[in-house]
Specification:
The protein contains eleven helices and nine strands. It is α/β, with parallel strands linked by helices. It is globular, with a radius of gyration of 18 Å. Bound molecules: adenosine monophosphate (AMP), fe (iii) ion (FE) (2 copies) and zinc ion.
């Protein structure tokens, strides 16, 4: 396994990615990845759809999810791995979060309407399909209806954290989210700490039972990767990584572009035992 690579952070059309779960598996196979995880926002539908094909391609597909948590008024993303995705309480909880995401989509459409933008939830629904609704679906709708020229402009003008039509999501309390993942046999990993930019939170999360840090990420340059590997060692956590690919939205498909070594999976499995 040394010299082989993995990607533990990938989104699909089940949330705000552009690639279907089957496309993700086939790209991962082309890139020679041996382990991947589909970590959609508040859903494991994409994971379930990819299982058979991953097996056929000799790829280990780890159950994954990305949960949005609130801590000190920051949007903190938590990745869960290896949990029992068939746990009925868990399924119910994330379904509730998806319903809340839909309502939040409606609230953002209402805000846009107040700003004189005549976007309808119908258009957003046509883009999202059965996916867990996120701001990227609204951004696409705004591009499609020509209210903005680009996806990034949609965030800059309307959908970004401080923009005019932003509505916060329903968030998990991070201690509850960590407990939930543990209860269903999984591990909890802090997603892209380099974009969170609040390293001072990490000791608090460790006290809450955090298991790992996402050291490798498409937004983390090399020194940052090393920084989070060191922090992980200091707090006795394991470290993982992934591309956080959302498909070819910004041109390039990121799957496999972040070189995450296989040893990360071994360390994660050891932590589970
Ligand atoms: P949501 O979970 O609905 O709040 O949407 C968050 C998602 O929107 C992230 O996972 C990214 O995929 C995307 N996103 C967030 N901020 C931006 C931004 N400034 N530009 C482009 N995409 C963004
Ligand atoms: Fe996303
Ligand atoms: Fe995230
Ligand atoms: Zn993500």
């Amino acid at each position: 396994m040394p010299g082989e690579y993995i990607d533990l952070h990938i989104h699909t059309t089940a949330s705000d990615g552009l690639l279907t779960p089957l496309q993700v598996v086939s790209i991962a196979a082309e890139k020679g990845l041996i382990v991947i995880s589909i970590t959609d926002h508040d859903t494991t539908d994409g994971f379930a759809q990819a299982l058979k094909s991953a097996k056929e391609n000799g790829i280990e597909l780890i159950p994954g999810v990305e949960l949005s948590c609130l801590y000190m008024e920051s949007d903190v993303h938590l990745l869960g791995y290896y949990f029992n995705y068939e746990d009925s309480a868990f399924i119910k909880i994330i379904r509730k979060f998806r319903e809340e995401r839909y309502k939040r989509g409606e609230a953002m459409v209402a805000k846009l309407n107040d700003l004189g933008i005549n976007l309808s939830m119908e258009t957003v629904k046509n883009i999202a399909g059965s996916a867990s609704v996120g701001r990227p679906h609204l951004a696409e709708a705004l591009v499609k209806e020509e209210y903005v020229q680009t996806f990034d402009e949609a965030f800059a003008r309307y959908l970004g954290y401080h923009a005019s039509a932003y509505v916060p999501k329903k968030h998990f309390d991070i201690d509850h989210a960590i407990d939930l993942l543990h209860r269903i046999g999984g591990v909890a990993v802090l997603a892209h700490p380099g974009t969170l930019k609040h390293d001072e939170f990490i000791p608090d999360f460790v006290d809450m039972g955090l298991d790992g840090l996402e050291a490798y990420h498409s937004m983390h340059k090399r020194p940052m990767v090393n920084h989070y590997k060191n922090l992980a060692k200091r707090y006795n956590l394991f470290y993982t990584g992934g591309s956080d690919c959302h498909g070819p939205r910004k041109g390039k498909v990121l799957i496999g572009t972040v070189k995450v070594p296989y040893v990360c999976v071994e360390k994660m499995k050891q932590a589970l035992e």
